[in-house]
Amino acid sequence: MGQFFHQYLEPIKLNDVQVDWKARDLSYLMEDNYVKHFTDMLKRANPVHGNDVLLKVRNIDGDVRIPYQDQSDFERIASQFHVFEEWKDGVPRTAYKGVVFFRYQTSRRIFLVGPDSLKQLGIADA
Which keywords does this Swiss-Prot/TrEMBL entry list (predicted)? Predict the structure, then answer.
């Protein structure tokens, strides 16, 4: 198993770029602003459904939104991307309103979207 993960994971490296956080506008992280920012990203993401989502994602430019129905469905999809599959208290770890997102190949974002996530975020089913 170690070789399997070694193939996909890089060692953790300390940041060597200085960032002046006090000079940055981080207001988008305030809850009301973040919900709007997050839902806007989610709305713009291309929906992908069905089997072989990894293959489909490779053929789409830009961000992608993939629905999952339950824990086993989430784990099946997450394993295709080699991302963390763990759940706690009935939701995937790192989820926000049932949505887990991560970067996949360059800057592309993948959103794994739970069955009630769009409703929780005030997004009409797309």
Answer: Glycosyltransferase, Golgi apparatus, Manganese, Membrane, Metal-binding, Signal-anchor, Transferase, Transmembrane, Transmembrane helix
